[in-house]
Amino acid sequence: xxxxxxxxxxxxxxxxxxxxxxxxxxxxxxxxxxxxxxxxxxxxxxxxxxxxxxxxxxxxxxxxxxxxxxxxxxxxxxxxxxxxxxxxxxxxxxxxxxxxxxxxxxxxxxxxxxxxxxxxxxxxxxxxxxxxxxxxxxxxxxxxxxxxxxxxxxxxxxxxxxxxxxxxxxxxxxxxxxxxxxxxxxxxxxxxxxxxxxx
Length: 199
Prior knowledge:
By secondary structure, the chain is α/β, with parallel strands linked by helices. Helices cover 14% and strands 33% of the residues.
C-alpha cells in the first residue's frame, strides 16, 4: 500500500520488496534490495524517511517523526519485528532488536546493536559499535568483530529476500491436508547463542 501525501510520492527502487500489507506514505525513499515486511507503517507525512540500500524493516515496525525531522536508516540497517523508530538516525550496518523503541533525535553510530525490548530516550547519542540494552537503554560494552560478522550474515538473508519474494511469492488458496512430500526447509542461519555454543 503506497500512498502519496500532499506533493510527496514515495520513491521505491525496483529491486526492493514492499509487502502489500505494509503502508508507505509520503516523503519516503526506499533503496536497493530493501525488504519491508507486512504490517510495517512507514509514515513520511510530517517529515522524511530514507531507507538506504540493503536495509530491512520487518513485520509490524513503525517509522515516524516529529514535524520537520528526517529519519535515516543507513545502508544495511536491520530493524527487527515490532520495533519503533521515531525521528532517529540509524548508522550503517546497525541491528535494532525486536520491539525496541528509539525516540526522537536518537543517533546511533555505525555497527551498533540494540537489544530486544530496549528503550532509548530522546536525544541519546551512541558511538559506533555500541551494544545498547535496557530500559532506559545504556551501552554495556563494545560490539565485537564476531558480533558484527553474525549480524551481517543475518542481514544478507534479508538482502536476498526481496528478489526471492519477486520470484516466488504469490497469493494462494490454503491446502486442507499436509502433503506426504512436503519439503523440509534448510537451516541457513543460527542464533547468536547457537553460534557461540551458549544455550
